[in-house]
Design goal:
The chain is mainly α. The chain contains nine helices and no strands. The longest helix is centred in the first third of the chain and has 38 residues, at 37-74. The two termini are 21 Å apart. InterPro entries: Gap/Sap (IPR021315).
Length: 218
């Protein structure tokens, strides 16, 4: 496992922090919910991180089996071409994605813990389709032929970094209390208005990473 791979996966994890859904739900809860706020927020974030971790494990195991079974035939060249094509599509599409697109962020239907779990699954299902950095990181780890004891902690660390912004915002809320009210209101408005721009940047950067990473194996 190379340092370069760790830097690339870490960079993708930092890029995934820009995802607005989990942070938007956290801001909504901090502004509108007071009853059992800490436990409900932790349940929500644990559900999101757990869902992505399980998806990552299944993808790593599945891709690893496919790569092992067909490596003698394709020698990873097909994978490199696929990564190059996907990277090119993401890079070009990023310039056409509506950057001013306004998004209605998910909200809990009730105050129960079950509702927070359901909200976590809903958020994850909405975001997983556009989780380009996560899929790129899984692709990089798969083509690097990492053993399970190597990629499991990387995957866990990736998911922790992904939910770090909501945890930081929640910590600041606990420390500063009412002082955070106005910044949270401003953050909620920005997340709603500019989520399209964040997705556009993510598509562009991930596309470039996939393109440059595939060139050496063509």
């Amino acid at each position: 496992m190379s340092i370069e791979l760790l830097f690339m996966v870490g960079g993708l994890a930092l890029l995934d922090m820009m995802s607005p859904a989990a942070l938007g739900v956290t801001v909504y809860l901090l502004l509108n919910e007071k009853e059992r706020l800490s436990s409900r927020l932790m349940i929500y974030l644990f559900t999101v991180a757990g869902f992505y971790f399980l998806v990552g494990v299944f993808l790593m195991l599945g891709l690893d089996v496919v790569m092992t079974a067909f490596s003698s035939i394709f020698q990873n060249r097909i994978v490199s071409w696929v990564m190059l094509i996907i990277g090119g599509i993401l890079f070009i599409a990023s310039f056409y994605y509506p950057k001013s697109k306004k998004t209605d962020l998910p909200r809990p239907k009730s105050n129960s813990n079950a509702a927070m779990v359901a909200l976590g699954f809903t958020t994850s299902l909405i975001e997983v389709g556009t989780a380009f950095p996560y899929f790129a990181a899984i692709g990089l780890m798969t083509t690097s032929n990492l053993a399970a004891f190597q990629w499991l902690p990387i995957l866990a660390g990736y998911n922790f970094i992904m939910v770090l912004p909501p945890l930081i915002v929640f910590t600041l809320y606990l420390l500063l209390g009412r002082v955070m009210q106005k910044p949270l209101e401003m953050l909620r408005i920005k997340l709603s208005k500019h989520s399209g721009a964040a997705i556009s940047w993510i598509m562009c950067i991930v596309g470039l990473i996939l393109i440059f990473n595939s060139l050496d194996y063509l």
